[in-house]
Amino acid sequence: MPEGYDKVKTQAKSAEEHHATTRARLHQIQSQLDNAVRAGKLKGKVCIITGVGSLKGIGRAAALTFAHEGAKHLYLLDYDPTNLPELKTTIEKKYPDVKVTTMKADAADETTVSGVCQQALCEEGRLDVFFANAGIATREHLADTTADTFMNTMRINALSCFLAVKHASAAMLKANPSRGKNFSSGSIIMTASTAGIRSGAGTVDYSASKAAVNSIAQTSAYQLQKTDIRINTICPGLIETGMTSVTFEYARKRGSEGKIGQLNALGRFGIAQEIANAALFLASDDSSYVNGQNIAVDGDYLLLIPLFPVDGLECF
Ligand SMILES: NC(=O)c1ccc[n+]([C@@H]2O[C@H](COP(=O)([O-])OP(=O)(O)OC[C@H]3O[C@@H](n4cnc5c(N)ncnc54)[C@H](O)[C@@H]3O)[C@@H](O)[C@H]2O)c1
């Protein structure tokens, strides 16, 4: 190995020191919303988010972040209704200026997706942001993956995004000066994955579905040219959420939490708030010239893997 790589390794902190720093850093990021001033980055914006029902999930973190930044009305969907009433109450208590509508709904059902876009237009006269985030992960090896499993993963992960782009863009094309929207505009954000960019980060069906999501963003951004509707994906690395909880619980039981998520330059896993922050950037006018991109939010997982290859799946 070249000398430079040896130097990188010897300069690194000890595993224990790095683990302690990581825990402190994640705690700080986790409590960001408690301390940050409300900057109003989404003031006046009408937003739809799918997959908000999981307590540790990316969708819930995004809903709270969008509310913190003053979104006008949040339409929040999940097919599991268990945690929706609590999420609505939490947002309404903390951010009384934000309207919240929660729905038990399948993000891959066309009537549902077109219906919620229409509802936003009817009630608020505009749609500004659609964060298509709902998704599932699978664990089977190629040999055990059935055609039904493959199609189900494609339906929930990729079809849901296609429907979001199709129906949200139609709604975002509608200007409404009486509601402060003088021209067509909007931001569609989809949660893809590092697995949609490279191999070794997910199952075959999951990775294919996320590659499709990345492609949908690129092609539809081209087709919606000159509309000021932007379409981008976020490609998270390993994030601690409901989806990955089994991996985390297993590692904690074995006392090897410090080893999770080391295959990236930051040497740690991420938390939902870090993906919500990326979604906020894409939803707000701060990203007004960012379009058709697949943005990795993964601690530089994509870069590090080829230098230090390790067997086995590391993330979703
Ligand atoms: N956690 C990770 O490491 C990771 C990495 C890369 C990408 N992602 C992606 O992030 C997104 C969010 O996942 P998460 O990690 O927060 O997982 P999560 O399981 O905590 O949350 C996903 C939520 O989506 C909901 N959902 C699933 N299918 C749905 C459907 N058809 N209609 C409506 N809701 C549905 C679930 O009920 C759940 O509340 C997913 O698209 C996932 O593929 C996650």
From TrEMBL:
CDD domains: SDR_c (cd05233). Pfam families: adh_short_C2 (PF13561). Coiled coil: none annotated. It comes from the Eukaryota. Residues 1-20 have a biased composition (Basic and acidic residues). Residues 1-27 are annotated as: Disordered. One of its GO terms (molecular function) is oxidoreductase activity. Keywords: Oxidoreductase. Belongs to the short-chain dehydrogenases/reductases (SDR) family. PANTHER family: 3-OXOACYL-(ACYL-CARRIER-PROTEIN) REDUCTASE (AFU_ORTHOLOGUE AFUA_6G11210), SHORT-CHAIN DEHYDROGENASE_REDUCTASE FAMILY PROTEIN. This is NAD(P)-binding protein. It comes from Gymnopilus junonius.
